[in-house]
Amino acid sequence: MHEATKARKISVYDYIVIGGGTTGIPIATTLSKNYSVLLLERGGSPYGNPNITKLANFGSYFSDNSPDSPSQQFVSVDGVVNARPRVLGGGTSINAGFYSHGEARFLKVAKLMNERLINESYRWVERVMVFKPILTRWHSALKGALVEAGVTPENGFTYEHILGTKVGGIIFDQNGQRHTAGDLLQYANPKGLHLLLHATAHKILFKNKGRTRPVAYGVVFEDASRRKHRAYLKGRQMDEIILSAGALGSPQLLMLSGIGPKDQLHTHNIKPVLHHPFIGQGMVDNPLNEIFVPSPVPVSQSLVDIVGITKSGNYIEAVEGFNLIGARLSDYQGYSYEMGGFIFEKVNYPQSKGYLELQNRNPADNPSVKFNYFKKPNDLRKCVLGVKVILKAIESKAFSKFKYPNMTIQDILDLNVKMPTTFPPHANTSSSLEQYCKDNVKTIWHYHGGCRMGKVVDGNYKIQGVDSIRVIDGSTLIISPGTNPQASLLMLGRYMGVTILSKRLASDKAK
Question: Could you confirm whether 446 is annotated as catalytic?
Answer without folding.
Answer: yes
